[in-house]
Amino acid sequence: MLIDTDSEKETSQDHIYSTTQVMGLRSATNRHTIPVDMFLLFEDRMEGNTAKQDRLTETGVQGELARAYLVAVDTDDEESIWSVEDSVNELGALARTAGATVVGAMIQRLRHPDVLTYVGKGRAQELSALEKELDINLLICDDELTPTQQRSLDKLLDARVIDRTALILDIFAQHARTREGRLQVELAQLEYRLPRLTGRGTEFSRQAGGSRSAGTGGIGSAGGAIGTRGPGETKLEIDRRRIRSRIAELKESIEEVREQRLIHRQQRAAQALPVVAVVGYTNTGKSTLFNALTEASVVAEDKLFATLDPTTRHVVLPGNQEVLLTDTVGFIQKLPTKLIAAFRATLEEVVDADLLLEVVDASHENAIEQSETVNDVLKELEANEKPRVTALNKIDLLADPFQLDTTLYPNAVPVSALHKTGLDALREKIAQVLAERMVIMRVKIPFTHSDLVELFHRRGYVEHEDHQPDGTILVGRIPRSLSGYYESYKM
Question: Strand pairing of 138-141 and 412-414?
Fold first, then answer.
């Protein structure tokens, strides 16, 4: 095993594997020995993961599919809940979602990422050799690269170099379907690219016109042609000026979207309709569960970030209580801060919700880590203290669903969104938790005001109902904003 640290260099040739052996590639020729600490993903050997992809990912190599190599630095951070191997496996899933084929991966142990090359000079030179032997045209780093690290690797390698942030932004750009989603993704992309623009500073542009925006293209996209103000201004300066101008325009447009969403939320609040926001780690089955509960047709695919744009539907809970259920974007570890900021208008649906329905993939080996990551993002949004119900999804994939420990999560209910099992219990749990925030009331409503009985059922939670000769007795809970309607009928 070969280990590089800041204080020691230990070399042993006891464990050497070839790329073809570990990756399961078809060709057994051109074997390349790689130290065991270059952790190679095993996921590409699974059924369905082939080099043939339905779409091209821009890699800077026109007409070729992206052949991606993954790189990570293991700093032995004791505070991290994720192992570096799990993080790299997830990075591979992200790469495949973007349309790339993962051909290998490297994990380098360092006290901290190298300030110049991320993985250190020696490892960077090894990457240069691997680039040619494995025909790599895309290098993906598991952490966000600094502009200096980005430039150093760009100079050393012919392959396009991106990091986890750029990869996630590319996936978001692919999946954003509404104007709101596209605006937010473009803002995040431009704010990410602005400090990373490079240029020699001696190229002077003499052409006018060009693109107004850097756009929301694929991985590493640099946008359209940029016009100039005339001789004496470098292309780099013009790029920066145009990007800053576009960022200002996007922020104004997003603020308009935010105000529109605020109006919609105020209208819902006036009707005293509780809002339940569906949150969770990406690819835990949020959209499938949303569709099962609402009979909607939100895109639900077995891929990361299949759904970006929020969707709200009306749902009737037990006792005819009505709520609004909102599907939101999935979370992921190392979620770019700029992306959270750019999606503020969308994520405010979570902040203003009355209850959070967290969806956890109970069959995933990192279910607890994923849930902790969701909680970290909710803390950043200052929404982690909201009432929460947990849907432990995909129990159909467990060998013994009855052995599932529901005590690890708040108000947990085992479900299978795909097979629609456990949904009645989930609806009942949502109704119970919502009721805990309502006002307790015991009233007798005369038959002449039967509309108030109906309103109690639709907006509140009825625990007991008794029909008397002179009216209907209701015992239960009602939103505080509606309690005034029932004050004169209290018992």
Answer: unpaired
The pair phi, psi for residue 144, each rounded to 5°, is: -70, 125
CA distance 236 to 65: 29
pLDDT band of residue 290 (cuts 50, 70, 90) is very high
- Are 190 and 159 found together in one domain? no
pLDDT over threshold 70, residue 387? yes
Phi and psi at residue 11, in whole multiples of 5°? -125, 130
Q: Does residue 406 share a domain with residue 482? A: no
Whole-angstrom CA distances from 358 to 168, 183, 208, 277, 281 are 22, 26, 51, 8, 9
70 inside domain:
yes
**What type of residue sits at position 331?**
F
Tokens of 99: 């349309």
Looking at 352-401, list the stretches that DSSP marks H as alpha helix, in order from N- to C-terminal side: 367-380
| pLDDT tens digits, one per residue of 116-158 | 999 999 999 999 999 999 999 999 999 999 999 999 999 999 9
pLDDT per position as a tens digit, 225-263: 333 344 445 778 888 899 999 999 999 998 888 888 788
Task: Give the integer Cα–Cα distance in Å for 479 and 459.
Answer: 7
Element (H, E) at 150: helix 147-156
Q: Which residue has the tokens 């960077």?
A: 124
- For the chain, the average pLDDT equals 77
- The answer to whether the CB of 44 falls within 8 A of the CB of 63 is no
- Tell whether 214 is covered by a domain: yes
Q: Which of 106, 128, 112 is nearest to 19 (CA)?
A: 106
* 3-state SS assignment for residue 313: strand
What span, in angstroms and rounded, lies between the C-alpha atoms of 137 and 65? 9
Q: Which of 277, 396, 395, 273 is nearest to 327 (CA)?
A: 277
pLDDT in tens, 82-124: 889 999 999 999 999 888 999 999 999 999 999 999 999 999 9
Q: Is there a domain that residue 300 lies in?
A: yes
The parent domain of residue 452 ranges over 439-489
Q: Which two tokens stand for residue 345?
A: 């208008």
The owner of tokens 């640290």 is 5
- Residues 6 or more apart from 61 whose CB is under 8 A from it? 137, 160
Q: Which residues of 257-276 are buried (b: 16+ CB within 10 A; e: fewer)?
A: beeebeeebeeeeeebbbbb
- The 3-state secondary structure of 5-67, one letter per residue: CCCCEECCCCCEEEHHHHHCCCCCCCCCEEECCCCCCCHHHCCCCCCCCCCCCCCCCCCCCCE
% of the chain surpassing 90 pLDDT: 39
